[in-house]
Amino acid sequence: MDRLGEMLVFVRAVEDGGFSAAGRSLSLTPSAVSKMIARLENRLGVVLFNRSLRSMTLTPEGEAFYPAARQAIEAVEEAEAAAFGGVALRDVLRVRSIPTFAIHQLAPLVPAFRRQHPGLRLEFILGNEAGNLLEGGVDVALYIGELPDSSLIARRIVTMRWIICAAPAYLAEHGTPATPAELAEHECLNFNKRMPWSTWTFRDSEHSVRRIRAGGSVTANQGQMLMALALAGVGIARLGEFQIAGDLAAGRLVRLFPEHESRMEESIYAVHQSKRHVSQRVRVFLDFLEASFSRPPA
Questions:
Q1: Closest Cα partner for 159 from 243, 294, 259, 265?
Q2: Beta strand 219-220 with 49-51: parallel, antiparallel or unpaired?
Q3: 51 - beta bridge partners?
Q4: At residue 78, does pLDDT exceed 80?
Q5: Residue 256 domain boundaries
Q6: pLDDT at residue number 145
Q7: What is the CATH number of the domain that holds 181?
Q8: Which one of 68, 86, 104 terminates a domain?
């Protein structure tokens, strides 16, 4: 009787939000997942899920069993890692990240991580929405700025610098602002108002904080779109230096306030669940990120 397998299916069903989603992540059919959950319930003598046509929620017994099942799975992972030194690590690591950081920073690191842990499958979920960073079975979330949920464990892995920039074509047509205050007279490309980065923050020479709601007629919910609009000469944008370093070096974008840049940094955090036992797949990924970003940037 595969008790560990039943617990793994149960945990996946909870974290992925249903039997079908759990089946997809474990390469099982929904009926196979349902049968394993039924076997587990029969063995325990309790009902773990309230099932209906529209939703599936945990019963009080399921709520109590979930953390214990998670801990049991993590204990097995730790035992295997101790026996094999991490070489035999097998599982799926789900990583949530804002798209620009994933494309420009995480993707180039994946080959090295895969060489270290070839048996670990990676699943990236990209999006800018804050909300519940770890919903849907996400193991680690990469997030910029203040965290929306203080109950999570966060490890700062690197800082990023915001750059106010525009294409030469825009500046030639509309002029170059001399100070941040003059941005009010320009077309500013910004994140949608509900996004956490839509307010542009500056620090003056006395380190007092000034916040500007950069106005304009064009907004987006993706930094890649804002970069494309800035390159097209539509307006002035505030973008991460890691995203536009190549365009700045090539002269396709121009820094506007370099004297403010050292005071426009934000931290990027690797966020995971607040619990005593961190799974081996999460631990090796966090250690890899920390080692990778501890090196000076190119």
A1: 265
A2: unpaired
A3: 56
A4: no
A5: 159-266
A6: 77
A7: 3.40.190.10
A8: 86
